[in-house]
């Protein structure tokens, strides 16, 4: 039996590694053969092979004929049709748009007459450093690698290398967050691809060594992708090369060049850079990247942007050859590189660095202090970690504690469980860094999607519902007791809590508590250590009263609780639409649990992916959760959103959310009901007394920079240019030493009046020829201004005509009185 389908590819980036892995995973569950044929180029693809699908060069709007042959082909066709309509369009999240290169330099920079070379910007930011050249890895030719030492030996070594790399990639995906984890998962799908493995084994069977088989396979797939009509798909060849490079590092170590010593601040040039090479760099020294190759959608660029590294691509070696070893300035926001900058240009960028540092400091202040809502409700914001380095980053971002220490990372790449002393050193370092803040250490959560070779794991059809976490502890009792002792010893240095994952029954909890108490007594630890559980198995919800009498705290694992509540594997595309942590059913379960737990005087936090979701924060605040734990980069934004929310309104919002039909309705409700509050038009932060700007361009740039720092405009270059367009039409210098630059701009977020008193008057081209020492900048959003823009400008212009107003502004030094003066005189202008 056979059935046919037709697909018009809906993905703007075509079928590349991430959607291909989802398609292959879906199709692998069927016994029928599924072949795709791209009508545009005639390429055939096995739908169960990631690499075969990528090799089909299927682009946006390509028409694909799908043939299904074998048993139950009719049922397979029906399910595949639903997948293609409902799931495939969402299999590739749109990439954040990269900024376009701004060839026209801002006026304040252009007047310094720099001579930049340009590239394609792949992120924001400025970096000053010494240009260095990366020692590139070159994929060896197959014939240059060692010859085969026999079929059985080569196949065995190939299998061990692939298994070893697979474990590393699994560990990376579990340890990393966001884009870095997504890249590791994509590389894992390539490594596990059936077409890739078959090609390697065929080459070895034909007499090649495992290493030369890898090199030949990589060359084949790279050549195949290089022929693609899509730049996006051509960029995926770097992923193939990276997987091959890492396999060769196991099979034929020593091929990679040694790492060069980098200066304290380096701008690193490379022909191209693989994702794993970027991850291996010392990012404390690498301040920016200059790449000859690498499109905006390559995984290397995606990672660089996630790490906030400024990057320029399309920078050929000849463009930087004269500057190697010399200081240069990289401005990724403008797409410009300044080799051997003049002192004036360097000073300009030192000011830029100071501005960006000021922005970071403002964010740091926003993330400091108590985590409270606008009406004073406390909600701790903690960090999820797997190492002391991540803890350090989290505390630098203002974390209130460690909400989840994933200790299984210590077990992942080990041949045997880590010793008690090795664990103790790791835990104690984190507790010391916490400096009195609470540290929740989760005992090893191995199994499911996190196997570890140091512990034997059975093959299971559904490992998420099988032998994992607490369920394997009785068989690994020595390792569990060793970990408990290490945690108890680390508790000498600060407050530590023990959390047990995957608890489903009271019997499991009581067994774990008994072992904890036995080890505490054996060590002579006087004070009990709080014992909590991951609330992730729905059975606990129905015995919550009993659990509250026996545990000290709960931490919701939103990822697992969501998938178990809806019986929907979060990684299974066929049921992926059911997995939704904002569905009213999930919110109701969590809200009821929080109420019960608090009624018993217990504490409840949440440490899954939902903790950092913007739409979820108002609802979690409304529930009265005690803590949210997330990755370090999410902390600042979450704390700032928290401080804008009213807990009382959030409780009302939650009540309405529980009446919604699905998660989509909840999201729409939150968007409409938790809007960002408007800012006053004039605050003390908008008053700039006695600034030292020495030109009209510097004044406009400085005032726009202030608006940007205050988050009153979202694009300082665009806002600056809008002001200059007004100045080109006519000078806003009104005379008497006053200027009122003004604009209606799409980049203005809040209507703003900003005042600057200049230490030295500057030429403004005023009508009376006098230099300007008082500047009143007026900014409105283009869509919202209406007549208010001209009304304010007219009112200000009339006020400037009055000598008493000019004298009052010049003479008043107290910011509060100056603000009151402006507000009173402008009353009625809005």
From the alpha-carbon coordinates, what is the Rg to the nearest angstrom? Answer: 30 Å
What's the pLDDT, averaged over the residues? Answer: 86
N-to-C terminal Cα separation, in Å?
A: 74 Å
The CATH C-level class name of the largest domain = Alpha Beta
| Biggest sheet features | 8 strands, mixed
Helix proportion: 40-55%
Number of helices: 31
Characterization of the model:
This protein is of the alpha/beta class. It has five domains: 2-90, HPr-like (Histidine-containing Protein, Chain: A, 2-Layer Sandwich), CATH 3.30.1340; 110-136 and 259-350, Glucose Oxidase, domain 1, CATH 3.50.30.10; 142-251, Enzyme I, Chain A, domain 2 (Orthogonal Bundle), CATH 1.10.274; 372-455 and 463-673, TIM Barrel (Alpha-Beta Barrel), CATH 3.20.20; 684-828, 3-Layer(aba) Sandwich (Mannitol-specific EII, Chain A). It is 43% helix and 16% strand. The chain contains 31 helices and 26 strands. An eight-stranded mixed sheet has the order 5-12-11-7-8-9-10-6. Strands 13-14-15-16-17-18-19-20 form an eight-stranded parallel barrel, surrounded by six helices. Strand 2 and strand 3 (44-46) form a beta hairpin. The radius of gyration is 30 Å and the shape is globular. It starts with a strand and ends in a 5-residue tail after the last helix. Residues 94-103 have low confidence and may be disordered.
In short:
By secondary structure, the protein is α/β, with parallel strands linked by helices. The chain is 43% helix and 16% strand. The chain contains 31 helices and 26 strands.
SSE map:
Blueprint lengths: L1 E7 L8 H11 L5 E6 L5 E3 L3 H6 L7 E7 L3 H15 L19 H4 L6 E2 L1 E2 L4 E8 L17 H25 L2 H14 L2 H12 L4 H17 L4 H5 L1 H15 L14 E5 L4 H6 L5 E6 L7 H8 L4 E3 L3 H4 L6 E5 L4 E4 L3 H25 L12 E6 L2 H9 L5 E5 L2 H4 L7 H15 L4 E4 L34 H14 L5 E5 L5 H18 L7 E5 L8 H5 L4 E4 L1 H8 L18 H16 L3 E4 L10 H7 L3 E4 L4 H10 L2 H11 L5 H11 L13 E5 L4 H14 L6 H14 L3 E3 L2 E2 L2 E4 L6 E11 L9 E10 L6 H13 L2 H9 L3 H11 L5
Parallel strand pairs: 7-8, 8-9, 9-10, 13-14, 13-20, 14-15, 15-16, 16-17, 17-18, 18-19, 19-20, 21-25, 23-26, 24-26
Antiparallel strand pairs: 1-4, 2-3, 2-4, 5-12, 6-10, 7-11, 11-12, 22-23, 25-26
Helix pairs in contact: 5-6, 5-7, 5-10, 6-10, 6-12, 7-8, 8-10, 14-24, 15-17, 17-18, 18-19, 23-25, 27-28
